[in-house]
Amino acid sequence: MAGAQSASSSLPNNPSPTSSLENAYLGSVRPLALQPGVMSLTLDEAIRMGIAHNLGLQLAHVKQKNIRAEKLQTINYLTPNISLHAETGVHQYNLAAQGFHEAEAAQFARLDPGSNAPFPFITKVDVTTAQLNLSQQLFNWAGWDAWRAANAAVNATDYSANSAYGLVVLNVGDLYLEALASGTQVHMARALLRSEAVTLRHSEDEHEAGTVAGLDVLRARVAYQQQQQALLQAEDSFAKSKIALNRAIGLAPEQKIALAEAAPYANLPLMPIDRARLEAYQNRQDYQTLRAEIHAAFYERKAASHQRLPSLSFSGNWGVTGISGGLYHGTFAAVGTLSIPIFQEAKFRGDHDVAEAQLDELRTQMQDLKQKIDEQLRDSMLDVETSSQLMQVAASNLHLANETLADTTERYVAGVDTNLPVIEAQATVAQAQTRYIRSELQYNEAKLGFARNLGIVDQAFHGVQVASAQP
Fold this sequence. Notes:
This protein has a 4-stranded antiparallel sheet. A two-stranded parallel sheet has the order 1-4. A hairpin with a 4-residue loop joins strand 5 and strand 6. The chain has helices spanning 43-53, 55-78, 102-109, 141-209, 214-249, 273-283, 285-305, 345-413, 420-454; strands spanning 38-41, 81-94, 122-139, 256-259, 311-323, 328-339. It is an alpha+beta fold. Helix 2 runs antiparallel to helix 4 (141-209), helix 4 packs antiparallel against helix 5 and helix 8 runs antiparallel to helix 9.
């Protein structure tokens, strides 16, 4: 059996959403029919739909089926083989070619002295044969090791398929959070546009009353139009993020959806690194995949070593043979075969060295994976802690910016100041809103990434049925 290849030597990073050709987990198969109206969509529903229709998960299950098929081929080598064979036909024999000569023919003639019939050396017979054949490997240590290697390879692909669940949850979760952030940006941009419109109307009224210069009106109109541009850009980003989400979960691109959840916020208490490392070793499917691949390579090396041992097999058949339409007689055979390899040492050594190299490579990958897991956990903890602090600072900054805007607006309405501080404060609020939305998104993505690095992000969704890619 060929050596099991590494299915997932390290936890892949979440790639940027570009194309399903570059990242299969951004694509889907068998998209759902377009539904009228707007579909309300929660995060859990999006993840379940993604698991049911995601392209990357479908490809993982295809690989799983291929490895299981290879295991069946190995099992067939160790199990009894039974076949039924029957044939009928006309056969022409050349007895002279079989060693019969005229001298032997004369001896046959003595059996019937009264017969003067010539003895034919070219004869035809109509023969019918039917038999049941059986063969069985009684002892083949190398074959048994190959079967155990195939079983370990199946376990490795099972773990790899389970890891694909986590990637689907991670990608769909990120896309949903990105869409939530874009929607929040649209909401805040509209609110700020309404504030800009109020400032513009007040400036126009004051200018008509002759209390402010035309520069104030011009300044307010420029700020209003800039905010209109910001709103259009935010709406465009929001629409694209929903299309990307639809693509990942199997909805039609033109399907209208409404995100039914607000951006989640909850503090995540971090755990000690030693505990996080042990939990990752227990739950991460890429780690379990590599362990199973090491077991498969270990048995493949044993199978290569045990090729030198003798093998014992049995074969036999039972049936009937006779002239078609005439007399039939039972036939049988029982054969035991002992095979002892002698002049194949070069092949045996080559197979053993190849299997040994594959095992050493996988063990080296395991050492590297343990270091990567430790690195990823530490990075995730830093990301969660830092993004939490950044979000708190961004929230405070947004609060202060709103207070500043309220104060400058009050001064402007009271006629104490021009609208310049108001417009500057509105620009500051817009920047603070963007930073807050981005920091909230980064914090939620950091928590999702930490759960993924622990191997627990997909535990609630392993029972979700995956749709078939067949029409």
